Amino acid sequence: MQKKWWHNAIGYQIYPKSFQDTNGDGIGDIPGIIEHLDDLEELGINMIWLCPVNKSPMADHGYDISDYDEIDPMFGTLDDMKRLIKEADKRGIRVLMDLVVNHTSSEHEWFQKALEDPDGRYGKYYIIREGKDGKEPNNWRSIFGGSAWERIGDTDKYYLHLFTKWQPDLNWENKEVREEIYAMINRWLDMGLGGFRIDAISHLKKDFTYENLPADGVDGYVNGFPYFRNVKGIETFLNELKKETFLPHDAFTLAEADDVAPEDLEDFIGEDGYFSSIFDFCHTRYHVNHPKWKDRPVEMINDLRDALFQKQEYVNGRGFLCNFLDNHDTSRSAERFIPREDIGYYSMSALGSVNFFFPGIVFLYQGQAAGMLDYRKKSIDEFRDPTTFNMYRGYLQEGMTEEQALEKLNVESREHARTPMQWNAQENAGFTDGTPWFAVNPNYKEINLEAEKGKEESLYHWYRKMIALRKSDEYSELFIYGSLIPVYEKTDGVIAYEREYQGRCVLVICNLKAAPQELPFGWNVKKILLSNHKDVNIEKEKICLRGYETVIADIEK
């Protein structure tokens, strides 16, 4: 495998709107990110990904871009962005931007011209079709709920929007559209950007078979994923995108690509794949797919383990997955995988270790190293996200009471990850001197980064130690290129594995149960590299793990 500059990257995802405000308007900004670059360097981060900062009306938190070449004034200026790239580079940190090219904002100049003349040049930039019998062209459901089609004025024409109606899908079949997108990407890369996280990239290709399908919900619509996700032929677009932009710049690319078939993974992230890495969400939706998940915490950990190992087996050294637990589109991982009464340093440090030393790229999310948790809301009016409101309406349509719908949102809403960063115990957690755009979690006086830094045993110091170990000269190549061998696969509540490379072997054992566990132990320990406790209890042929204990050891087999 050819070595790349990003193979040893430790990534950190920033949700700029909630990271740090410097001008008192209650909204995080690019100067606020610059202000904390030293903190990120101290943690060991060498790559940051910014959620969208391009100009946008913010119908979907910036994932509706109205001008790809401009920074939205709420975040700063283009000069601020250039300064961020320069200052980050001084600290050995590469900057990634969010690339949203499946759709634009409905306020984008292209779409405004398309509305003026749906049959003209810019009408062909989007997917516009005639209705059928006075209704939409078909009964696809938007990913965010409701119809995926919106009528254009009083005409019988509709435009496709897989997300909100303010996010019309681009027509990637149109070469002129693709060339516009490639030119824009190259302008950003020429500024020194390290690469992109690429949003909704698996939806570029659509299967335009417009027959209605049997409705799968009370709304009369149908989940159309087979017709607009990873559709055959998308590889032509993805290869061209890479060839025209990423490859000449040696850019790092991290694609949001759900449900890539195992046989297609090499095409996506192999040596000559479309992207450097992909986000896979197979392990993040347990709390959604199993309504009674809180009643089966051990089974949940076993299923998490199986999902993580299965995906690694699919990749099998052919590429680099992105290893993450927290993300701007999920609730906090501690709330998803740890019983609330057990949440604390030991359980959260053990959880944070489970896939940290997997092959692939590691990404942390803002607040993860500070131990931030979900902020449960008391009313639907406290939310800000259009997806949340669509979910709420859907739950009510299904027959839930308002209380039941709110309880479900307090488990599933992605807004939990978007509360302001908790820097310290000062007013508004040090995020802003003004009124925050979104309420700060009231627990900030106890849970904040400054408090974590001041403790001897803390989540912050644990992540810092893990990062240092993963990047160390002695072990970095083992963690990057070594094989992964699962162990204790039938032991309830344990996620454990060996990493082996060129005769060296490291063992990672995480007990994700509150109860102690005694396990058979057949390795010769050369050195304990890390433990989230002060001592490790290894006796002859057995290891005694405390509840939520993690041990990482250099071993001989």
UniProtKB/TrEMBL annotation:
Keyword presence, Ribosomal protein: no
Q: Name one GO molecular function term.
A: alpha-amylase activity
This protein is called Alpha-amylase
**Keywords recorded for this protein, A-Z:** Carbohydrate metabolism, Glycosidase, Hydrolase
Q: What class of enzyme is it?
A: hydrolase
Q: Matching PANTHER family, A to Z? A: ALPHA-AMYLASE FAMILY MEMBER, NEUTRAL AND BASIC AMINO ACID TRANSPORT PROTEIN RBAT
| Domain Glycosyl hydrolase family 13 catalytic intervals | 13-418
Q: What is the lineage of its organism?
A: Bacteria, Bacillati, Bacillota, Clostridia, Lachnospirales
User: What's the family?
Assistant: Belongs to the glycosyl hydrolase 13 family.
- Reactions the enzyme catalyzes: Endohydrolysis of (1->4)-alpha-D-glucosidic linkages in polysaccharides containing three or more (1->4)-alpha-linked D-glucose units
Q: Which InterPro entries match?
A: Alpha_amylase (IPR006046), GH (IPR017853), GH13_cat_dom (IPR006047), Glyco_hydro_b (IPR013780), O16G_dom_2 (IPR045857), SusG-like_C (IPR056300)
User: Which GO biological process entries does UniProt record here?
Assistant: oligosaccharide catabolic process
Q: Which organism is it from?
A: Mediterraneibacter catenae
Presence of keyword Membrane: no
Annotated coiled-coil positions are none
**EC number(s) reported in the record:** 3.2.1.1
